[in-house]
Amino acid sequence: MRNLDKYKGVIPAFYACYDSEGNISPEGVQALTRYFVEKGVKGVYVNGSSGECIYQSVEDRKIVLENVMKAAEGRLTVIAHVACNNTKDSVELAKHAESLGVDAIAAIPPIYFRLPEYAIAEYWNDMSAAAPNTDFVIYNIPQLAGVALTMNLFAEMRKNPRVIGVKNSSMPVQDIQMFKAAAGDDYIIFNGPDEQFMSGRVIGAEGGIGGTYGVMPELYLKIDEYVKAGEMEKAREIQYAANEVIYKMCSAHGNMYGVIKAILKINEGLELGGVRKPLAALIDSDMAIVEEAAAMIREARAKYL
To answer: Residue 8 pLDDT > 80, yes or no?
Structure first.
């Protein structure tokens, strides 16, 4: 059996960090990385959905990962999402990620064209072959990618010895059970939807990767602690509190990640910029929502920690 302990726990999805002109901010990336180290999370998931990856160039994504690795200094498990919508760029990012010493690479399936499963498997295996000494995580997010990880495709991918598990962001919690039952303890299943972090952990996910963990990591760390201790009522109460924050953040006109970055500026003093078009920027009326959500997080910390 493989040692998967470095993946078990709370792994925030890393946010895109921009300067005042909308370019990648190395300083912002390093500051956010140090923030995660200080908060005590298990690791970070870099250049995924929360990192606005589909709106960034290959060079942008290299700069982000280089600065994460520089600031992490080996103190975080780093999973680099390397999928682009073509094999050539994905392979380039996979090679780059391995050269930096990441713990794992990850990938969604190709989007837009509906490819047969053997083509999806080849796409994933090509980038895995480009990083032959690095673990590989399948990213299942059918509601956005338009393609679901089937049990047959998962079985095919497990023929690749570098595949260690699935980041499961499909909405049915049962999918975690299905993948876990099929793969066993030699693979790790990550819970994806943040609103059901507790549910995913209870049904078999050994860790979680989520886009809202970063704005309130203490709450998810506490949920994880209570789940491990079997204190489910306490875990559920905090999950409900975290969900209320998520619902509030999603009520803005602007994109949720813009709301999160504005909250991190208020609560943590981090300057991470806005979001990249075509994601919607915050408007003036959103600031009341930002302030309210930031206060909700502070109140939840005071109550539960």
So the answer is: yes
Cut 0.90: pTM above it: yes
Distance CA 138, CA 107 (A): 6
Instruction: Please tell me the chain's helix, strand, coil percentages from 3-state DSSP, rounded to the nearest 5.
Output: 55, 15, 35
Q: How many residues does the chain have?
A: 305
- Ramachandran category for residue 9: left, alpha or beta (phi over 0 → left; psi -120 to 50 → alpha): left
Which secondary structure element, helix H or strand E, spans residue 67, and what is its range? helix 58-72
Q: Is the pLDDT of residue 185 over 70?
A: yes
Task: Find how far residue 218's CA is from the centre of its chain.
Answer: 16
pLDDT at 1 over 70: no
The letter for the amino acid at 207 is G
Tokens read off for 284: 């003036």
Helix axes of 232-249 and 256-268: crossing angle, nearest 10 degrees: 110
Q: Which residues are catalytic?
A: 139, 167
Tens-place pLDDT, residues 196-239:
999 999 999 999 999 999 999 999 999 999 999 999 999 999 99
Pairing mode, strands 188-191 and 104-107: unpaired
SS3 36: helix
Cα gap 16→48, rounded to integer Å: 9
Distance from C-alpha of 283 to C-alpha of 192, rounded to nearest angstrom: 29
pLDDT computed for residue 3 by the predictor:
84
Three-state DSSP at 139 gives strand
d(CA 166, CA 143): 16
Instruction: Name the residue among 228, 268, 269, 274 with its Cα closest to residue 252.
Output: 274
Degrees to nearest 5, angle at CA 30 with 24 and 35: 125
30: enclosing H helix or E strand: helix 26-39
CA–CA gap between residue 139 and residue 211 (Å, rounded): 14
Taking the C-alpha atoms of residue 39 and residue 270, their distance in angstroms, rounded to an integer, is: 14
Q: Please, are residues 33 and 235 in contact by the beta-carbon 8 Å criterion? A: no
